[in-house]
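wait is this the right file?? whatever heres the structure
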């Protein structure tokens, strides 16, 4: 009897321990909140801002609710909404196009609605594309980096709506990097492109809705101050990264999102935003190696199973590079030796060595500096590899426009020292924080 009682007590203690450990370790139990994206908030409001209007929708597979139901289907099936056309950014409405591929105009298989491409020859919706539309809706999950083209599509959409007198509704979604990290200089005149559409830092710490509000409000200020000049030049609504004519904009905010939230805090499922940003975790690494990937000189995990988390090449000694990077003591980061063979992309089929970046403390880490510290360290331990001399010069322009300036490459190529570009890379951060805070929708 005593043995039985002891066994019951032990079993009870084990069950209690398991329960307590489960509560402490499972992030969904205590650390996450159910953030409602804009599409759910709009649905709960009975689609009020869309009623009685012909609706066009710019979206991709990331536009879903908590049940993973597409915004396309939600709006198409809603009796209050007259959805008449779909518009696809890079990778298309249904996400069936590879990075950089031209997206063609066609019809959606499920709804039968016309689908227009906003990634290809036409990136700004033409009058013909918007002729049958009263209001455009934008619902796409961003990754928080200036070079990710979805916010460029948003910018072009704002231009088109301003130019053609159409309303625009932005259904807001989280910034997966949170609302605090601002890193990188503002994109400069001469370096504005589809991978640097706005004069904003590389990491800008805003949601798509907040960014749209800021861009539109600043456009209204310019328009009211100098409308005669702008109207005379209304063919081009955006110059040097700023919008010169405001559109009729409505942002439907999220419910439950806070600026300190990272992706895993939201309780939302990550839908593949593009073929190489497969998880919300991947979004943390995109700004750490993505600029470096423009050289085509290193493999950054694209073509392997860890896109943006790696840096490798045939001539690197993995242990030597890992030891050298760890010796820098970069806050929040550990570098581990890795040996791998890319299935495609740079060094396809070759056995290469390098490091895997482990992000131990997101808040402490300076994300965008990692690629420059890697270049600095590689030059120090392998001085025979002069990257800026050996890389294909055709890639320099892409590197520059992703950086938003030519200064970074020009200066770094002289000394290979992070200290020589750090101040320039940081020069706009605090001014931008002050500029953008006026348009925050969330605490």
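ok assuming it is, sequence goes like this
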């Amino acid at each position: 009897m005593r043995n039985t009682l002891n066994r019951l007590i032990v079993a009870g203690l084990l069950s209690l321990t398991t329960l307590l450990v489960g509560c402490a370790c499972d992030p969904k139990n205590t650390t996450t909140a159910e953030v409602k994206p804009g599409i759910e908030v709009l649905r709960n409001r009975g689609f009020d801002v869309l009623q009685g209007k012909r609706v066009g929708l710019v979206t991709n597979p990331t536009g879903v609710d908590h049940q993973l139901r597409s915004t396309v289907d939600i709006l198409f099936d809603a009796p209050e909404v007259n959805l008449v056309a779909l518009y696809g950014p890079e990778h298309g409405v249904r996400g069936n196009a590879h990075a950089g591929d031209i997206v063609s105009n066609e019809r959606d298989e499920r709804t039968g609605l016309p689908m227009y491409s906003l990634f290809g020859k036409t990136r700004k919706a033409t009058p013909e594309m918007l002729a049958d539309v009263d209001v455009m809706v934008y619902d796409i999950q961003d990754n928080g980096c200036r070079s990710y083209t979805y916010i460029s599509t948003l910018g072009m959409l704002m231009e088109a709506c301003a130019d053609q007198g159409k309303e625009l509704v932005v259904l807001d979604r989280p910034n997966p990097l949170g609302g605090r990290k601002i890193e990188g200089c503002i994109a400069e005149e001469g370096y504005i492109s589809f991978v640097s559409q706005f004069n904003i830092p590389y990491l800008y710490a805003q949601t798509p809705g907040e960014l749209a509000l800021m861009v539109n409000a600043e456009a209204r200020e310019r328009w009211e101050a100098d409308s005669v000049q702008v109207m005379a030049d209304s063919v081009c609504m955006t110059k040097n990264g700023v919008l010169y004519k405001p559109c009729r904009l409505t942002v439907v905010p999220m419910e439950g999102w806070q600026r300190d939230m990272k992706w895993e805090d939201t309780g939302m499922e990550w839908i593949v935003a593009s073929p190489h940003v497969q998880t919300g975790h991947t979004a943390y690494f995109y700004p750490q190696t993505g600029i470096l990937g423009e050289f085509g000189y290193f493999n950054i995990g694209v073509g392997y199973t860890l896109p943006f988390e790696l840096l490798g090449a045939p001539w690197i000694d993995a242990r030597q590079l890992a030891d050298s990077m760890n010796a820098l003591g970069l806050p929040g980061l550990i570098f581990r030796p890795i040996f791998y063979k890319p299935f495609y992309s740079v060094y396809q089929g070759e056995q290469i060595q390098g490091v895997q970046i482990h992000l131990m403390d997101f808040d402490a880490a300076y994300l965008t500096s990692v690629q420059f510290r890697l270049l600095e360290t590689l030059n120090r331990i392998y001085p025979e590899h002069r990257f800026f001399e050996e890389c294909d010069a055709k890639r320099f322009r892409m590197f520059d426009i992703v950086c938003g300036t030519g200064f970074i490459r020009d200066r770094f190529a002289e000394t290979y020292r992070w200290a020589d570009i750090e101040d320039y890379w940081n020069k706009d951060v605090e001014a931008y924080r002050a500029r953008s805070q006026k348009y925050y929708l969330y605490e």
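Residues 2-25 form the longest helix (24 residues). so i think its the right one actually
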